[in-house]
Amino acid sequence: MACLEGIRVLDFGRYVAGPYCATLFADFGADVIRIERPGGGEDREITPLTDEGDGALFLQINRNKRSVELEPGSEQGREVMRRLIASADVVVVNVPDSALAKMGLDYPSLSAIRPDIILANISSFGPVGPWADRPGFDSVGQAMCGSAYLSGPGDVPYRTPITWVDHAAALYAAFGVMAALVERSRTGRGQQVSTNLLAAGMAFSATYLVEQAATQPGRKAIGNRSFVNGPTDTFRTRDGWVVTQVVGPVIFKRWADLMGEPQWLEDSRFASDALRGINGEILSRRMQCWCDLRSTAEALEELAAARIPAGPVLSPGEALAHPQVQAMALFQAQSTEGEALPVSLMSLPIDMSESGPAIRKRPPRAGEHTEEILESLGLLPG
């Protein structure tokens, strides 16, 4: 039995943060119902891969869900909403907090229908402050938490196309909901769980934010080098790139021995991680000279033999083909009742000895389960 079987989640989310939060529950066995406008949400069409136009983003973070189409403003839509809420344990949304009441999804409205319900809302900027009502996406979170400013060569701030802020907010929200479910099992009370993209980005960037608040170092981007240890950087080999991360005196000694620079172990410039970060350009130049003479495979073999953390810089295609990725079997082909998706989906990177997550069914077509869910709510004849 899946560990969240018997829990019903209503997913009103769009794009990444809300839907991914709901997916975490679906993968652990919860009955997750995606609520969509007629024709399906606009987030279905990003990087289209199927004949219906569903894209990679939608397919990856909407597996294991059912889909209901409804018009919330209609009389039937309001009744469907009321009955769905009455049947649900958790509601997931990602809108400005001020929009919840307009949607009928604010906590007082939900708890009037089901007193022990749990509401999770992931907004862009939280419920208070001058930006509370503004829209935002992942890139805005990356820019405002300091990450983009500290990334890149220093002349232009760099954002990453990986939506880590969205995913971070989704993970925080899911963790909060799980805690709320545990609390409800003890007290019988529901509650609202709130997080936002900016706060999630700030939390993931907290090391440098805490440092700045305490000592005001005013750090600026230094490319791929680390501020706080070294040599941590990317290096060109004869046929590609590798990255190393040298942290702590034990690994630094291994690296210095490999480089044939044992005198650097007594050099005051490299006496600590912090000093190795400050003087990292010197260490990176030495490492680059070493890599200039080797292929990527040769460099990685020698680094591995010396027990120095390192890896190749891979394209998405190379990442999929890497033998370690293949050995972990992270991707699963999807088919339901003989109908195969043209893509494989990545499972949650969590292994459990019992009751772990699984991808059991493909993402739903828009409104695919409307009739069966309406029938279960007593709104259609059985």
Short description:
By secondary structure, the protein is α/β, with parallel strands linked by helices.
How would you characterize the overall build of this protein?
With 382 residues, the protein is α/β, with parallel strands linked by helices. The chain has 15 helices and eleven strands. The strands form three sheets. The protein has a six-stranded parallel β-sheet with strand order 3-2-1-4-5-6, with helices on both faces. Strand 1 (8-11), helix 1 and strand 2 form a beta-alpha-beta unit. Helix 5 packs across helix 7 (197-204). The longest helix is centred in the middle third of the chain and has 24 residues, at 164-187.
Alpha plus pi helix count? 15
Count of DSSP strands:
11
Large-scale geometry: elongated
Task: Report the biggest beta sheet as strand number plus sense, adding barrel if it closes.
Answer: 6 strands, parallel
Give me the side-by-side strand order of the main sheet: 3-2-1-4-5-6
Radius of gyration equals 25 Å
Beta fraction of the residues?
5-15%
Order of helices and strands: EHEHEHEHEHHEHHEEHHHHEHHEEH
The percent range for helix content is: 25-40%
Task: Average the pLDDT over all residues and give the rounded result.
Answer: 94
